[in-house]
Amino acid sequence: GKKVIGVRQHFGRFEVPYTWRLQNKIFAYDSTLGYINISGFRPSVCFPFKAFDALENKEFDLVEIPFNTSDGTLFGPMQLGKEEAWKDTKNLIDTVRKNNGLVVLDWHQRTIYEKDFPGFGWVYTKALDYLKKLNAYVAPLSEIVEYWKARDGLSVRFDRKNKTYIISSKKSVDSSFIIYNTKKLNIKGNKNHKIIKKKNYS
Predict the structure, then answer these.
(1) CA distances from 59 to 29, 42, 63, 67, 72 (A)
(2) What CA–CA distance (Å, rounded) separates 115 from 111?
(3) pLDDT tens for residues 33-45?
(4) What strands, in cross-sheet order, belong to the sheet with 184-187?
(5) Element (H, E) at 164
(6) Cα 122 → chain centroid
(7) Helix or strand or coil: residue 138?
(8) pLDDT one-digit tens code per residue, 52-79
(9) Count of CB atoms situated within 10 Å of the CB of 115
(10) Cys-Cys link to 153, which of 68, 86, 158, 170 (CB 3.0-4.6 A)?
(11) H or E segment at 158?
(12) CB 84 within 8 A of CB 53
């Protein structure tokens, strides 16, 4: 089978930085950081990030991919009906979309059984249909962390003399950049960069 490269602590059992210390060097990513009782953005961002040990002032190799909500959260502590649960989930997706970020939904396989978990599977299906409509990139976290680590090799440099942005990367990685007030653009490295040119900051 495939090697397990990530982890999420059951019931959200997590303590910074000690959980990360245990996981570091064993896993490539963790996805425990999030609220258990409500939906939202516990680290105040909607992007993966390198875990950091503030007590020892050092960065871990481990990537944290925060989760935003789960079936257990919506139908458990929040006690929402399926329509309310979908509204809450859609709001998360829309917020992340506005910020060009990543939304992580944590659903258990068993909850697709409607008789025992009414509404759980319905909300998940609604979310997938909505993401498809938005043409969003949907992937397992193993792919997300692989992409995120590849971004570490990206470099953006501005050549003032030639008024040129030079984007280079060690690995082939798809990426998007919004660049303001530029007349020329030079890309070095691979050609998988989507460039959005804008004349000003408005």
Answers:
(1) 13, 19, 10, 21, 31
(2) 9
(3) 999 999 999 999 9
(4) 154-159, 164-169, 184-187
(5) strand 164-169
(6) 23
(7) coil
(8) 999 999 999 999 999 999 999 999 999 9
(9) 5
(10) 170
(11) strand 154-159
(12) no
Three-state secondary-structure class, residue 167: strand
Give the closest residue to 46 by CA, choosing from 72, 23, 71, 65. Answer: 65
On the question of pLDDT at 91 being above 70, the answer is: yes
Convert the pLDDT of each residue in 162-181 to its tens digit: 777 777 777 777 777 666 66
Please, which residues bridge with residue 200 across strands? Answer: none
Angle at 27 between CA 8 and CA 145, to 5 degrees: 80
> Is 37 strand, coil or helix?
coil
Buried/exposed 85-105: b ≥16 CB within 10 Å, e otherwise: bbebbeebbeebeeeeebbbb
Q: Which two tokens stand for residue 32?
A: 């425990």
Average pLDDT (174-199) is: 61
> What does the chain come to in residues?
202
- Which helix (H) or strand (E) segment holds residue 143: the answer is helix 141-150
Identify whether the C-beta of residue 167 lies closer than 8 Å to the C-beta of residue 156.
yes
- Looking from the CA of 176 toward its CB, the CA atoms found within 13 Å total 5
